[in-house]
Amino acid sequence: MNANPFPRVTARPSAIPLPRVSREFLPRAALAALFLMVTYQFDWEWLRFLTSESALRVSALLGRATARVSLDTINVQGQLFQIGIACTFVDVFLGSIPLLWDLKKTLRQNASWLLAVAMIFFVFNIFRLEIAQGLYFRGVPWIVADEVLGGFSYFAVWLFLWHQRTWKWA
Amino acid sequence: MKRTVFLPALGLFFGMALAVSPATTFGQSCSSTPVLQGRVCSKPGARCSPPTVGSGSVGKCTTEGARAEALACECQGLPTPSYNIALSPLTPSGISAGAAISTITVIPFNGFTGKVDFTCAVTGVTHPVPSCANPPSATVTAGSATSTLTVTSSESTADGNFTVTVTAVDAHGRPPDNGAQSSTLLVSHLRWLIGGGGSVALLTFVALLALWSLGRLWRSKRAAQR
User: Fold this and answer.
1) Helices H, strands E: what count in chain A?
2) Long-range contacts of B136-143 (CB under 8 A, 24+ apart)
3) Given an 8 Å threshold on Cβ–Cβ distance, is A79 in contact with B194?
4) What percent of chain B has pLDDT over 70?
5) Which of B116, B135, B141, B196 could disulfide-link to B201, CB 3.0 to 4.6 Å?
6) How close B186 gets to chain A, by Cα (Å)?
7) pLDDT digits (tens, 9 = 90+) for B182-199
8) Are B94 and A152 within 8 A, CB to CB?
9) pTM
């Protein structure tokens, strides 16, 4: 009898169409995860030494008091810094290989490209380690100087991988 | 004329001096070979460097004949058996809590043998300082002997630079020729594991990735609407 002045209307928000991930991306992502797991099965002592030595020398060039304490630990301005596997960027590099591999190129071409990327990542890594140290010595809390900056570094690598991709995303 | 008499007389004097000198005056540690100036001997009368003849008082640099530029390290007395000690740098040179180790080497001279006892002491501006146990004695029989110095730090040890000094005495209470030896140790309880890879770094990365993905989706939706 009484007509409802406010008829019930079911409104649905317009859904944002999520792209379907391509079949090419999934195996690469799975391989990247596998490579990451393999990375942490090794100690990477030589790379930790190389990274710490490079950071030590760059810090010395920047006028900071430096000294080596052990294979993976350096003393900068009286502060001890221990270099773990993650700070060598080896995990990032090995995880990037499946995403960087171009199926249309030869093994040699891919290997040359990966070698160049390894060098780019190494230099970038030393750069961000020095920025982290610099921020820390200027009073920025370590968790921000190192970890948050680390997150930004990972994201920068992702953007690099995205722009270099040869695979279809969707 | 006068000169011609003087030179043979001088030669005779040195020849006699050499003949009456006991054989031990030219010990193995003391070089009688002329060496170029500045290499072993710095100037006539100076002590030999390194002082390889006991207390160092028996080895002196002398001029070799008429060659002013050539000096020799010549023994002028009985070599005294003695020793030096050498301390390797503490490894690691910086610790938080744990131990740093150094090797003490006893270097004997002139046939020194016997037991050498060590004591160690740690000094620093901040307290409490790291502790060091007296290193075990070393016994020299033939060649050098070694002992181990261990310095330990705990969580309660103060941060700072510390000097660890090792002194030694032989069975006759004689110290080494080169005196007490020191090494430095840095103690710091602050140690950062650098390089990200922790949960905060991953969270930051995921957050940035999510924002980036949303931005891409939003842009593609706007493009589709147009």
Assistant:
1) 6, 3
2) B138/B104, B138/B106, B139/B114, B139/B115, B140/B83, B140/B106, B140/B108, B140/B112, B140/B113, B140/B114, B140/B115, B140/B116, B141/B113, B142/B113, B143/B108
3) no
4) 62
5) B196
6) 8
7) 998 888 776 666 655 578
8) no
9) 0.52
